[in-house]
Amino acid sequence: MTKHYLLSLNPTAKHDWDRCALRDPITAKRPELAKLIAEAIDAEPGTYLVSVNIEVKVLEQAPMHQAEQLPISPAERTHTQFKELAA
């Protein structure tokens, strides 16, 4: 069974659970691995000892978007504001 997911690694995320997130690329839902394994073995009620192999291939990497930095000095900020007003 091959499944595709988006893995997002963001060490600066506000919440711990968003620092490393695995999501379905279409629905954006987080996968429930136990349900996926049960589906893979067509499980009947009972307890199973299972072996799960995970093979990871990076298909594409998108860089993180960096927030635009604001000017630090008041003179730079004023100059930028005038340019935006003129536009």
Molecular structure report:
It is a single chain. With 87 residues, this protein is α+β, with helices and mostly antiparallel strands. The protein is 24% helix and 9% strand. The chain has two helices and two strands. A two-stranded antiparallel ribbon has the order 1-2. The longest helix is centred in the C-terminal third of the chain and has 13 residues. It starts with 5 loop residues before the first strand and ends with a helix.
Describe the SSE topology:
Layout: E1 6-9, E2 20-23, H1 33-40, H2 74-86
Antiparallel strand pairs: 1-2
Output the keywords:
2 strands, elongated, two-stranded antiparallel sheet, 2 helices, alpha+beta, 87 residues, 9% strand
User: C-alpha Rg, in Å?
Assistant: 23 Å
Q: How many DSSP-defined strands? A: 2
What is the percentage of strand-forming residues? 5-15%
Q: Classify the oligomer.
A: single chain
Stretches where pLDDT is under 50 for at least 5 consecutive residues are: none
- Please identify the structural class as seen in this structure: alpha+beta
Broad shape: elongated
Mean pLDDT: 80
Read across the widest sheet, the strand sequence of neighbours is 1-2
Specify the biggest β-sheet: 2 strands, antiparallel
The SSE order reads EEHH
How helical, in percent, are the residues? 10-25%
C-alpha end-to-end distance = 54 Å
Discrete helix count:
2
